[in-house]
Amino acid sequence: MCEGSTMPQLAASNAVMYELAAENPDMTDLDRLTNLYWSLCSVLRAGTPGDVVELGCNAGRTSVLLEMVLEAEASEASEEAGETDRSLHLYDSFDGLPAPSAADRYLKRGDCKATAADVLAAFARRGLRRPEIHAGWFEDSLPRHLPDRVAFAYLDGDFYASILTSLTHVWPRLSPGGSVIVDDYCDRRLSPRAWDGLPGVKKACDAFFADVPARRRVLVGAGDLAFAEFRKPPDGR
């Protein structure tokens, strides 16, 4: 767990990470979970203001981890950052993926379908606080339902248009020092093992950040993790 957390919290979170990875190793493997874990911890420990959002939550397995970290760190983070509460906001069409563009491959319209009930059941099984769930296509839900300030965002939209829409709406609300993790971002130069099945994701990120200052880190794991983190500079520019 983050520095300063108790050993029982650490043991509980580690156990859940193994459990989540076993449930669906293709979508919630340990490489993903551990990188999300430490990136979110670093944002919380830095006192970065704002809520946590996940765009493309599917059945809520990674969402469970994000909420566990929020709850475990709530009191200590609130004292250090002046935050009284941080909410977890989840976004998904719950109708599967939209139609792919020419930049996309591997997945098709309607794939990766889950329900809001699946998400709530995953939270209820672990006794976690109910998240804020926003159903609908990103272009409809994000302009109306994103929190005013975002400290941490996990983007798992799979396709070019979904990632570009996500960045367009999330980045202006991201607090200085905030973090955006993008799944399926494959940079074989910096991460030779990375899975390259969804090339539209990197194309969308490269297009968005061509004129937007950000600190990019390509993350790695023991397997074929394709992950990138984009941090907003401390001056907010």
Task: Provide tags for this entry.
237 residues, Rossmann fold, seven-stranded mixed sheet, 39% helix, globular, SAM-dependent_MTases_sf, Methyltransferase, TylF_MeTrfase
Structure described in brief:
It comes from Streptomyces luteireticuli. This is Methyltransferase. This protein has 237 residues and is α/β, with parallel strands linked by helices.
Structural summary, described in words:
The protein has 237 residues and is an alpha/beta fold. The chain has seven helices and seven strands, in the order ααβαβαβαβαβαββ. Strands 3-2-1-4-5-7-6 form a seven-stranded mixed beta sheet, with helices on both faces. Helix 1 (7-23) packs antiparallel against helix 3 (61-81) and helix 2 packs parallel to helix 3. Mean pLDDT is 90; it is low at 3-8.
Mean pLDDT: 90
List segments where confidence is low: pLDDT < 50 over at least 5 consecutive residues: 3-8
Strands of the largest sheet, in order across it? 3-2-1-4-5-7-6
Estimate the global geometry from the Cα principal axes: globular
Number of domains: 1
The string of secondary-structure elements, in order, is: HHEHEHEHEHEHEE
Give the fraction of residues assigned to helices: 25-40%
Oligomer: single chain
Category by helix and strand content: alpha/beta
CATH superfamily: Vaccinia Virus protein VP39
Termini separation comes to: 30 Å
Protein name: Methyltransferase
InterPro entries: SAM-dependent_MTases_sf (IPR029063), TylF_MeTrfase (IPR008884)
Pfam families: TylF (PF05711)
